[in-house]
Amino acid sequence: MISEIINNIFDILIIILLLITIFYAAKLSRMASTFKRIEKDKENMEAVVEQLSNIIDKANLAIANMKETANSDGTNLQKNIDTAIKLSDELEIIVSSGNSLIKRLQQTKKYISNVNQQNISKETLLSAIKENKGLYR
Question: How many structural domains does the chain have?
């Protein structure tokens, strides 16, 4: 009888040990599947990081191109502004010269009108013009 009790105790002990082994095997299986999932996620994450890196490189290149274009356009725009300023200055000189010429022509017209009213001879008029006497009163 004692041998049967000992056999039953060993059987129960073996069953308990088998249950513990099954429990740890199931836990190890879950850990292995989690590890596989993590490994797969790691591969996916590496692909995403590589795509992101490529996109960042393209964005940096686009930004560099935009800066170059902006600098080039800014230089061209400044050249156009400088040219416009020079043309404006030249136009001011031309307008000023034109105004001065108009004033001189008006004065000459007045002088000729005065001469015609006073019946001065052409010779006297020409000599006065040559000497520039009284022409621009």
Answer: 1
> Is 136 inside any structural domain?
no
Please count the helices (runs of H) and the strands (runs of E) in the chain: 2, 0
Do the beta carbons of residue 123 and residue 117 sit within 8 Å?
no
Specify if 67 maps to a domain: yes
CB atoms within 10 A of CB 110: 13
CA distance 101 to 95: 10
Residue 137 covered by a domain:
no
pLDDT single digits (tens) 67-125: 888 888 888 888 989 999 999 999 999 999 999 889 888 888 887 777 666 766 667 76
Percent with pLDDT over 70 in the chain:
88
Q: How many CB atoms lie within 10 A of CB 108?
A: 13
